[in-house]
Automatic annotation (TrEMBL):
Organism superkingdom: Bacteria
PANTHER family (UniProt xref): FORMAMIDASE C869.04-RELATED
TM stretches of this protein: none
Name this protein carries in UniProt: Acetamidase/formamidase family protein
Pfam families assigned to the protein according to its UniProt record, in alphabetical order: FmdA_AmdA
Family matches, as Gene3D superfamilies: Acetamidase/Formamidase-like domains
Length: 362
């Protein structure tokens, strides 16, 4: 099934809830191809005019997405977040107590460019940047019309695949593209408005760069049909996402959506909180505030997210791998890595990386 992103098929700044009507209904195990739209170029501080914004940066008019233009014109920005989210998609048979498995089968760039932004009061160093640059005439080229920083980043073929390119002195710096969806989630069991920014126990804006092609994200189902959604497409992101955004750029995602009942083929740890895996690793996911209500990316938030990630990792090793608690704790200290997913979404994220090969899993 193909799910486009017309103005009536997306939400802007908020996430689906139990009362949001689905844009599509699929069977469990269905493969869906979803168009996602980056909020960069659509936002008000960039003129809410993707065509004018990107052509002003040298992009050919034919390389500006018509659905992004229409969303900017016709979709109400009626949530506090910046993100454009496609969905929700109802999955037949998914019920509270199940887990929804989202397999990422393919991610294709819809445009040959992205944007990396830093906005006032946000990022890892709020109050320092971009304020320190405001009087610098030599840096004005990177301030957008709303006074925020937006760094246009072309994508092009490189020696080992697609790369992003940024100016560096008299030359440039390039880095490999590794597309993933910053937002994948299921609806929370509420009728209240759900901000698109903080990730929660229902997924959402997790910003975990390991969730590229070949990964699987498990999410506890909260409402009938699960009501899955996707957005915040990224072309590349470093752990931490320190400026505020990744290299944001629209993607076409092909996903498999599978509802797994209790006792089914999913880690037991996944029935309590988001959990992911790649072909090589299991990823317990820690959040400083799973309810998504507070948070600010400070040291306390990072400590809370780290503790949550370690507890999730412990639960997985004990419940799913049969390890004794002291041995599991020792293994995590000796052999597992914990990475900062992001520190910029109010609710801070840390994810663990547990090698499957250590357990003889190919």
């Amino acid at each position: 099934m193909y799910v486009p992103a017309p103005p009536t098929g997306v939400l802007w700044g908020r996430l689906p809830t139990r009362s949001t009507p689905p844009v599509a209904v699929v069977d469990s195990g269905a493969v869906v191809t979803i168009d996602t739209i980056s909020h960069e170029g659509v936002l008000e501080d960039q003129g809410q005019d993707p065509l004018g914004y990107f052509t002003g940066l040298g992009v050919a008019p034919g390389d500006v997405l018509s659905d992004a233009v229409e969303v900017a014109r016709r979709t109400p920005h009626d949530g506090p977040g910046p993100h454009v989210v496609t969905g929700p998609i109802a999955v037949r048979g998914a019920e509270p107590g199940h887990v929804l498995a989202i397999d990422v089968l393919d991610l294709q760039l819809r445009v040959p460019y992205g944007v990396v932004s830093n906005r006032h009061g946000k990022g890892a160093l709020p109050g320092e940047y971009p304020e320190a640059w405001e009087s610098r005439a030599d840096l004005r080229r990177w301030f957008n019309a709303g006074g925020e920083i937006s760094v246009f980043t072309p994508a092009r073929p490189g020696p080992g695949g697609l790369v992003g390119a940024l100016p560096a002195g008299q030359g440039e710096v390039t880095f490999p593209l590794a597309p993933f969806l910053g937002i994948m989630g299921v609806a929370r069991d509420t009728d209240a408005l759900v901000d698109s920014v903080p990730p929660t126990d229902a997924g959402g804006n997790l910003d975990i760069n390991e969730l590229g092609v070949g990964s699987r994200l498990y999410l506890p189902v909260r409402v009938p049909g699960a009501m899955a959604f996707a957005g915040d497409p990224h072309m590349a992101q470093g752990d931490g996402e320190v400026a505020l955004t990744a290299m944001e750029g629209s993607l076409r995602a092909t996903l498999r959506l599978t509802s797994i009942p209790p006792g089914g083929p999913a880690p037991r740890a996944a029935f309590a909180a988001p959990f992911a895996e790649t072909p090589t690793h299991w990823l317990p996911i820690g959040l400083s505030d799973p309810d998504g209500a507070e948070g600010g990316g400070n040291r306390t938030e990072l400590d809370l997210a780290m503790k949550d990630a370690v507890r999730r990792a412990m639960a997985f090793l004990v419940q799913d791998r049969g390890m004794a608690e002291p041995v599991a704790y020792a293994y995590l200290s000796a052999a597992a890595d914990f990475q900062v997913s992001q520190v910029v979404d109010r609710t801070t994220g840390v994810h663990g990386l547990i090698r499957k090969a250590d357990f003889g899993v190919a």
